[in-house]
Amino acid sequence: MKTKIKKLIMEGQDFLVTTHIDPDGDAIGSAFAFAFALRSLGKKATVYFNDQVPYRYEFLPGPQITHTMPHGMYDAVFVLDCGSLFRIGKGHEGAALLKPLVNIDHHDTNDLFGTVNLVDKKASSTGEIIYRLLKYLKITIDKNMAENIYTAVFTDTGSLRYENTSLSAYRVCEEMVKAGANPSQIAMMIYENHPKERYLLLGEVLRTLATYNGTVAIAHVTGDMFEKTGTNSEFVDGFVEFIKEIRGIEVAVLMRELDKDLYKISMRGKGTIDVAAICNMFGGGGHRNAAGCRIEGTIEETRRKLLDALCAGQ
Ligand code: 5GP
Ligand code: MN
């Protein structure tokens, strides 16, 4: 796969780089680092994101981003950190027509949508795969790339805490620090730089917290709560991990209202249940311990569907 990608990069000139909706640290860090890397080779890299960069990642050095799917012809389209092509958001139908389509990812539920698929389910993060690819391409990793790759690996491993925290994840972080990434500064920007409103929202969300059987914790967030606290969906990042901290909890769930009777589910596991398999039952996916999906229905119906699925999956 890497040889094919190398050939595409060396022979091409004009590339498109994109990632998933609601981009997280791995999505943004991987896309930015890769775009910088392509540019360091004298190539043109256009970066398309469906959504804005969340405030906590605004500190990352990055190229200019377009939020409208470009219609031009590219020598290759790189889709990073995406298990399925529809997850790039608006314009995914058009992207399917753009060939070659290179899928670089580490999700357990990746459906190999690319014409070239560099998918390593064992990798801690897409950032780690990008790091290996840059080494393979003999690209010198500068400070801008290093900060992005460090952020990708650090955030996708839950600050080097989750079970995907492999020796190779540590090694990539070490290399990135050597190349100029500052760990304490990056951690502070991501985790200790929130607007006060985030905590007003957290208060509202925690009021909805319920546990079931001592092993499942569910909370939800509504459009009204966002309005009341002057926040939006990007302020919710980290809430599901927070309720996962409760002792004995095996599955934590945050239900976010997207529209009337439509919920985005974020699920986290720390026990024996494979939450990607549960989310897959609703057409979603992710990793064994971190996954998501969308469910239609009222809040009570959605909660019931989830609890039934969790019971069946146990
Ligand atoms: P989050 O809950 O933070 O949105 O997502 C957790 C993990 O599940 C991430 O790796 C994300 O890419 C994946 N994920 C979230 N929602 C979906 C979805 O609807 N479909 C698929 N295939 N993966 C999802
Ligand atoms: Mn990832």
Describe this structure in words.
With 314 residues, the chain is α/β, with parallel strands linked by helices. The chain folds into two domains: 2-191, Alpha-Beta Complex (inorganic pyrophosphatase (n-terminal core)); 197-313, Diaminopimelate Epimerase, Chain A, domain 1 (Roll), CATH 3.10.310. Helix content is 39%, strand content 20%. The chain has helices spanning 2-11, 25-40, 92-97, 126-136, 143-156, 167-178, 183-191, 197-206, 223-229, 239-244, 275-280, 299-313; strands spanning 14-18, 44-48, 65-66, 76-80, 101-105, 116-119, 210-212, 216-221, 251-259, 262-269, 285-287, 290-296. The strands form two sheets. Strands 3-2-1-4-5-6 form a six-stranded parallel β-sheet, covered by helices on one side. A hairpin with a 2-residue loop joins strand 11 (285-287) and strand 12 (290-296). Helix 2 (25-40) runs parallel beside helix 4 (126-136), helix 2 packs antiparallel against helix 5 and helix 5 (143-156) runs antiparallel to helix 6 (167-178). The longest helix is centred in the first third of the chain and has 16 residues, at 25-40. The radius of gyration is 19 Å and the shape is globular. The protein starts with a helix and ends with a helix. 44% of the residues are buried. Guanosine-5'-monophosphate (5GP) is lined by residues 20, 22, 83-84, 107, 109, 266, 284-287, 290-294.
